[in-house]
Amino acid sequence: MKKNSFLGIVLQILVVLVFLMCLYLFIQDKEVQVENQSSNEISVQSTETSSSQVSESENGLPSVLSSDWELVLVNRDNITEELNPEVTEIEGIPVDSRIAENVLNFLAAARTIDANEYLISGYRSVAYQEELYDYYVQQEIANDPSLTQEGAEEVVQTYSQPAGASEHQTGLAIDMSNVASLNESDPDVVQQIKELAPDYGFVLRFADDKRESTGIGYEDWHYRYVGVESAKYMTEHNLSLEEYIAVLKESGK
Ligand SMILES: [Zn+2]
Predict the structure, then answer these.
(1) CA distance 63 to 201
(2) Catalytic residue list contains 219
(3) CA–centroid distance, residue 222 to ligand 1 (Å)
């Protein structure tokens, strides 16, 4: 009887021990699982962090906003009222005072390529642009009386813009050439000036391969100030101002 009860106690202790062992192992297993899970989370987080760092440095956009004053977009889709910028005259041509020094330095640099480079036009008010546009339309009709008003305007819009649609009203655009009357000049000279323009914050605004994006034919004399950083980025990535602003907006800038 005593022996049986002793065995019974030993068995009970064994059962309890086995139970405790199982419980211990179960808890251990759970802890390992939790540890694995959290380390997975950490590695996911670290992958995410590094990938966003990579994409930021990959897109390498200049530290500008599409709403910055240098990037104001004026075209037939973005009609703008009189902007009345404060202007400074460079050799008799008014430009936005904030870019006067850039214009002066760009003009000086262009003259090292061709001494005959000069400023044809800078800031033009919306009112003056309207007069100019109407004059061009009348000229087209005089040259070809078969043209309707609409047809004549279509022709004019390849080289001049209606009131409110010309970026000359911003004071940030200049026409610069070595020949008169907005005629095309020596392509080699244009190429060299176009290459140094970004150093002064300018881009040749209406490139031959960007007619679709800008809606304007090739102009080898019309430069637009956008700031040095943006000008270099636009040139490097072959973007028109319309395309560049779309890229900035897409990335929330
Ligand atoms: Zn122009």
Answers:
(1) 14
(2) yes
(3) 4
What stretches of the chain adopt beta strand conformation (E)? 87-90, 93-96, 118-121, 173-177, 202-204, 222-225
Distance of CA 192 from the midpoint of ligand 1 (Å): 19
Q: How far does residue 137's CA lie from ligand 1's centre (Å)?
A: 17
- For residue 20, the model assigns a pLDDT of 59
Comparing 111-115, 173-177, 181-185, the range with the smallest average pLDDT is 181-185
**Ligand 1 mean position to 226 CA, how many Å?**
15
Q: How far is CA 248 from CA 13, 69, 199, 216, 233, in A?
A: 74, 14, 21, 22, 11
Q: Using CA atoms, how far apart are residues 147 and 169, in angstroms rounded to an integer?
A: 28
With b for 16 or more beta-carbon neighbours within 10 A and e for fewer, the 31-43 pattern comes to eeeeeeeeeeeee
Catalytic residue among 117, 153, 167, 219: 219
For 187-227, the pLDDT digits (tens) are: 999 999 999 999 999 999 999 999 999 989 899 999 999 99
Please tell me the total number of residues recorded for the chain in this structure: 253
- CA dist 101 and 6 (Å) reads 105
